[in-house]
Amino acid sequence: MVRHQPLQYYEPQLCLSCLTGIYGCRWKRYQRSHDDTTKWECLWFLILSLTFFLTLSWFYFWWEVHNDYDEFNWFVYNRTGYWSDWSIPVLVTTAAGFTYIAFLLVLALCHITVGQQMNLHWLHKIGVTATLVATVVAIISIDQLWKEEWNILFISFQATAPFLHVGGVVAITLLAWLVAGQFARAERASFQVVLCIAYLSVVLALYLVPLTISSPCIMLKKDLGSRPAIFGHRGAPMMAPENTLMSFQKAIENKADGVQTDVSLSHDGVPFLMHDNLLRRTTNVDEKFSERASVHSSMFNWTDLEQLNAGEWFTTNDPFWTVHSLSASDSAKAANQSVCRLDDLLSLAKASNISVILNLQELPVEHPYNNNFINITLETIMNSGILQHMVVWLHDKDRQLVRQISPDFQQASESKREVSALIADGIFSLYLRYSQINVKEVREYTSRNLSTILYTVNEPWLYSVLWCAGVKSVTSDASHILKQVPSPIWLMPPDEYNLMWITSDVISFTLIVGIFILQKYRLGSIRTYNPEQIMLSAAVQRSSKDVNIMKEKLIFAEISDGLGNAEELSLYSENGYDGCSNEAITPLDLQDVRIRMRD
Q1: 164 or 581: which leads in pLDDT
Q2: Proportion of the chain above pLDDT 90, given as a percent
Q3: Which tens digits make up the pLDDT trace of 341-382?
Q4: Among candidate residues 229, 118, 112, the one with its CA nearest the CA of residue 178
Q5: How far apart (Å, rounded) are the C-alpha atoms in residues 340 and 310?
């Protein structure tokens, strides 16, 4: 009986199996290959890389736009008529897509590092394509429907760019290990030159990025201006239903410097507080007056408006995900709020000695008091007894009349104009969206004694950037959060920032040079073999618990007379082995192997 020798011992390669299995569903050893990756798979790697950078940019954008999630939800509500927190599903989907693509890219880079042929599975190709298409559609949609929101990217860089630069330097330094490995393994000098030039170009560009970084927070502490005043935007809408008496009370409890509200006029001439044209989002008008639910809010009499519940929607929809933080008594109180009158707010503001920003809503042409809206509102303000200088007046119509009746009002404009034109009109404050003005303009207005009030600022990082820029006041849905910010999140002197920049670049360059030298030393002398040949490495006999034995048929592209050369085939080690009898393999055994293969 002929007893066959096991031809090779195979070490367990769990990590490599998982790597190639997850990426290309190649779980078996014979499915893997060290051949060069095909051009088709290289194209898919480029598509995967492009998708990664697109999803990374989109994910960063959507994370930073967190300040305006409520605005986004209101934007969608106006087009669908249905209120929901649309921002969270978008965030979760974006995070999932980015994580998936980032994971695949890491697997692809690991393939390159260990010299495995890349072969992305067709299911992953579908997933990458779907993610790429969805991201592109999302970017185009935002550009078409919410174009001004892109400005938040440039504003956010004023807060994050110095640290993103350091993170980028770390990433490109880690990538040097992979690039240096490919450089050391490459056989063609042209490929080495192209690879080196491309990598060093990216490195150099990243090192010089700080030359383009401009942040108001890179300044001396002594040059930092006073803390911006915080006005509760429609009260404290995270703690109570917006534009209700409870909301304004919560803003005062949180020590807001003032409140902002929207004033409308009922059909019978009573000024009340309401932001939307319709009552459907913030009241139960569908239940009380279903046949009039689509009628403009100002076309209701006050006797009808005071019957509506203006708080139940807040506890039901939980627009800011904050209802759980309310006490049981506050939650019950919020659910029973009613529409608030202007004189109730003014009485509260007078008692608390806080300022009020009044934004008058446009009335329908057919409204009976359309021409007397301003007069009625001014009369209500004057009768409340609030000090005139505590009122910020935004409405542009009939400013001359307003000045005659209430000369001490703070006149503010919602349009950005030349400084000289604003001063000529007696306007000394600008009420703008935070993305409509830049640092240079803020400082120019400040130098001409014009204050800026920016809306709506909810995130501490954004508040910090505006603080450093010299903004005087902001309105916020999160006054209780911003009041807890004692100083800008970070403030760095220019010399300290330059030191951080140069130090990180020098350390990175030193590490990159060291990595290239080490990789050249490790891999430069490794002998390359014909990829069609299967090489067997001798192994010392081990326990079956540690070693998996596998017999394979040996297929050679070229069989020469020197097949028995032990150095070329690496069939045995220094001591040799015999998987069954523990005997050493002799040259005679090798001749038997050759004869069996030829048969």
Answers
A1: 164
A2: 69
A3: 999 999 999 999 999 999 999 999 999 999 999 999 999 999
A4: 112
A5: 9
Position 561 scores a pLDDT of 43
The CA distances from residue 48 to 1, 22, 53, 106, 118, in Å, are 56, 15, 9, 10, 12
Coil, strand or helix at 131: helix
Q: Is the pLDDT of residue 390 over 90?
A: yes
Task: Please state the separation of Cα 376 from the chain's center in Å.
Answer: 46
Q: What is the pLDDT of residue 295?
A: 96
**HEC assignment per residue over 582-596:** CCCCCHHHHHHHHHH
- Angstrom distance (rounded) from CA 355 to CA 407: 16
Q: Within 10 A of 113 (CB to CB), how many other CB atoms are there?
A: 13
What HEC string does 24-52 produce?
Answer: HCCCCHHHCCCCCCCHHHHHHHHHHHHHH
411 strand-pairing partners: 393
- Say what the pTM is: 0.82
Q: Which residues contact 357 (CB under 8 A, 6 or more apart)?
A: 231, 258, 259, 260, 261, 392, 394, 412, 431, 453, 475
Dihedrals φ, ψ of 103, to 5°?
A: -65, -45
∠ Cα 126 129 132 (to 5°): 150
Q: Which two tokens stand for residue 58?
A: 């989109």
The residues, any chain, with a CB within 8 Å of residue 35's CB and separated by 6 or more, are 117, 531
CA end-to-end distance (rounded Å), the chain: 18
Mode of pairing for the β-strands spanning 258-265 and 9-10: unpaired
Selection from 247, 304, 309, 198 nearest residue 476 by Cα: 247
If you average pLDDT over every residue of the chain, what do you get? 86
